[in-house]
Design goal:
Helices cover 20% and strands 35% of the residues. The protein is of the alpha/beta class. The strands form 3 sheets. It has a 6-stranded mixed β-sheet with strand order 5-7-9-11-14-15, with no helix packed on it. A 5-stranded mixed β-sheet has the order 6-8-10-12-13, with no helix packed on it. It is elongated.
Length: 225
């Protein structure tokens, strides 16, 4: 079942998309998600896509104030409802986000490159942090013991991976986990689980992947080297 609250980074900030259902239930799910990712979302500028929900000034104003109390800034509200859109404008909120100008789309320097959606986290994840993403995930920082990162695609940690990492969470056995220091408490790729040995040699960048049905770690070298 799709999540009632989906969060992804875009040019203007964090886009929070709310699913269908009764507003009290959706609002509760939103607050729960914010509490679960409080450290990650701290100080974020939010673009809230409420889709078909019809929100009056009192409801939207209360939501804005609640988010502000949690250290979040509600910058824009996107809606399929003219009533909600007008309410947002009355409260001084944007109701449109950047759309590329046709000239920007035709610039010859823009080279189309296919790829999947990825989440970039620029911080150290500490014990108790748990981050899930439906695409690839890159962490610029450490993943400490007690922290968990779960991705449907690959995981790259530009730092020390000492917590739990699960790549290919929906069964992709081609997924990999890379880290400058690969020392997880537990590492999973698709349905395979590996627990690293207690004793290790020199700490070098490594890549973990599935070979012959088992998770193995190899030296992480640039492609073509």
């Amino acid at each position: 079942m799709p999540s009632k609250v989906q969060i992804k980074g875009i040019r203007e900030g964090l886009l929070v998309t709310l699913g269908e259902g009764d507003w009290p239930e959706i609002n509760h799910a939103l607050m729960e998600e914010i509490e679960n990712q409080a450290d990650f979302l701290a100080g974020a500028k939010l673009i809230l896509d409420v889709e078909n929900h019809i929100l009056n000034a009192a409801t939207l104003g209360k939501l804005r104030d609640t988010l502000s109390g949690k250290g979040l800034s509600l910058w824009a509200v996107l809606s399929n409802s003219p009533t909600t859109e007008q309410t947002a404008q009355t409260l001084g909120l944007a109701t449109r986000i950047h759309q590329p100008h046709p000239d920007e789309e035709k610039r010859p320097t823009d080279t189309p490159i296919s790829g999947d959606e990825a989440l970039l986290i620029r911080r150290t994840l500490r014990s108790g942090h748990r981050v899930e993403h439906h695409g690839h995930m890159t962490v610029i920082g450490d993943v400490n013991p007690g922290a968990e990162i779960i991705a449907r695609g690959d995981i790259v940690v530009w730092g020390c991976l000492r917590g739990m990492a699960h790549a290919g969470a929906e069964g992709d056995e081609d997924a990999v986990v890379c880290a400058l220091d690969l020392s997880p408490t537990q590492l999973r790729i698709a349905g395979q689980i590996a627990v690293p040995p207690d004793e290790r040699g020199e700490r070098l960048p490594e890549i973990a992947l599935i070979k012959d049905g088992m998770v193995v770690a190899e030296s992480w070298k640039p492609i073509g080297s």
